[in-house]
Amino acid sequence: MSTQIIQWYPGHIAKAEKQLTENLEKVDLVIEVRDARIPLATSHPCLQKWIKSKKHLLIINRKDMISSQALESWSQWFKQKGQAPLWCNAKDGSGTKQIKKAAIALCSELNIRRISRGMRNRAVRALILGFPNVGKSALINRLVNKKVVQSSRRAGVTRSLRWVKIDGKLDLLDAPGVLPPRFEDQASALKLALCDDIGQAAYDVELVAIEFLKILNQLNKNSTPGLNPKILESRYGITPVDNQVNPNLWLEIAAKHHTSGDVPRMAQRLLDDFRKQLIGPISLELPT
Questions:
Q1: 11 — pLDDT class (breaks 50, 70, 90)
Q2: Residue 109 and residue 182: Cα distance in Å, rounded?
Q3: What's the Rg (C-alpha) of the chain?
Q4: Nearest-CA neighbor of 139 among 179, 102, 108?
Q5: Which listed site, 150, 208, 214, 256, has its alpha carbon 20 to 30 Å from 268?
Q6: Which of 240, 243, 242 is CA-nearest to residue 251?
Q7: Which are the contacts of 256, defined by CB distance < 8 A and separation ≥ 6?
Q8: Statement: residue 90 has pLDDT above 70
């Protein structure tokens, strides 16, 4: 994008970041949660500065929202980087049992040291960290097997830090989503907006929908594995020319067909359909 159309840094996130740094000393492990559709854009640039020498467990949520080919490509990419993320879908619980086991295993030496000093075992203390709306609260509810924290597919629901006891082996500190102070990289900011990982007040829905259509054009041009090149045609009944969509024109035509000519409402519908996976699994990022 040539212009800066996205900027969001609400006051509660600045407060949360301050609380976060103050509470990091109390935890043994940082569980970082990312969005499978944008695993790089949901990597916080300050993460390593925050966690320092703490144990780190990388979780990539919403694995159901990308193709199996994309998941395999990312798994190989992370492996080459020396990382082994755990993939999950917090919505249906798949992959969450392995997260609890991995968290406890990573910190197993903690209680070994405590016992050697004549101290009692205690639960591993883990901080759940990530961008807004990547599924942190939904993951906690799955780990506890009941709804203990408010969860919603919109940014900014969790506003303050709170401890959640899983069992005698694991305690979790749920933190609000944290964003960088500024979105210097508008390409990453766009992906966050598309995935509803930042508040809608930060951007113009119509402009973001147009950028989404441009991304689909590029994915189709690259013959992206696992992507149905006719996803828009199948959903909205509008045939693109030479498999390429003119974003502005497409929105106008789609609005005439579906929203009585209301282009902003059509733009919102397009984004909602992507977020609800009504136009299939789409990876906005792929390893290069």
A1: low
A2: 38
A3: 20
A4: 102
A5: 150
A6: 240
A7: none
A8: yes
Give the mean model confidence (pLDDT) for residues 232-260: 88
Domain residue limits, the chain: 11-174, 204-275
The Cα-based distances of 250 to 98, 207, 213, 257, 261 in angstroms read 44, 13, 9, 11, 12
- Cα–Cα distance between 154 and 188 in angstroms, integer? 18
Per-residue tokens: 22:
């103050």
User: DSSP letter at 95?
Assistant: T
Torsion sign (Cα): 273, 277, 279, 281: positive
Q: Which residue in 283, 271, 166 sits closest to 210, CA to CA?
A: 271
The rounded distance, in Å, linking the Cα atoms of 236 and 251 is 11
Closest CA to 88 of 54, 41, 39, 123: 39
User: Does position 217 have pLDDT exceeding 70, yes or no?
Assistant: yes
- Hey, what's the torsion of the CAs at 181, 186, 191, 193, to 10 degrees? 60
Distance in angstroms (rounded) separating the CA atoms of residues 19 and 131? 15
Per-residue pLDDT band for 121 (boundaries 50, 70, 90) equals confident
Q: What are the residues whose beta carbons fall under 8 Å from the beta carbon of 195, sequence distance 6 or more?
A: 35, 37, 38, 133, 275, 284
Residue whose pair of structure tokens reads 């498999």 in the numeric block: 243
Q: What angle do CA 277, 282, 286 make, to 5 degrees?
A: 155
The residue type of 209 is: A
Mean pLDDT, all residues of the chain: 85
CATH architecture of 11-174: 3-Layer(aba) Sandwich (3.40)
